[in-house]
Amino acid sequence: MSDLRDVSDVRDPELPGLLLRTERDTLIPLLRGVSDEAFAVRTCCPGWTVRHVLAHCAAALTRVVEKRFEEGVFSPESNERDIAERAEWSHAEVVDELERGMTEAGAVIAGAPDGRQDGIALGEWVHAGDVREALGEPGAYAGPGLAPALDLLASVTRARGTVPLHADLDDRDEPLRLGAASGERPPARYLGPAPTLIRLYAARPLTGTRYELAGATEADLVLFG
Questions:
Q1: pLDDT digits (tens, 9 = 90+) for 75-94
Q2: How far apart are CA 58 and CA 63, in angstroms?
Q3: How far apart are CA 175 and CA 153, in angstroms?
Q4: Mean pLDDT throughout 169-187?
Q5: Is residue 159 a contact partner of residue 115, using CB atoms and an 8 Å limit?
């Protein structure tokens, strides 16, 4: 019997790894070229500097690679412990760990049942945007990783059953379908830039952005923050 689902509804297990490797090739050279002072710059993540964000990301990917998911993992308390464990590391050591994680975690995430770890790769990419924005780099939530990030966002929101939304993006020919169609409500509509859509789902600052959202509130779209 043939599968009648839209091909876009089928999880691509290679997508998280593709996103991580794409981001690795963009972010790591940037980090190796900045000054030590840049690691102390504050990000949009409350209380976290660039170094804190990078240490958190490196630790999260190492946990994925080593399959260490004890009770309470990725809670605020667990994240702070991971960061504290790396307090005596050099900046280069933190970046080295992050590079290894971005290289190796994709294969592990691909094999996770039901794509339950796919959101980790998406969160890592968003945090890379947080770092770029803190460092004043243009296109913080854009760049080479944007296309796979959008596809992964669509997949993760469907899997988590979020509010259905059709996004008409400024630089994408076909609408992007996000969330899970339940038949109980028509899809919400978004019109605007793709990086701003990422900001909405990631609960990142929207200052200076322009977009249209109908049929849902900003709070309805928040996937993680």
A1: 999 999 999 999 999 999 99
A2: 9
A3: 14
A4: 88
A5: yes
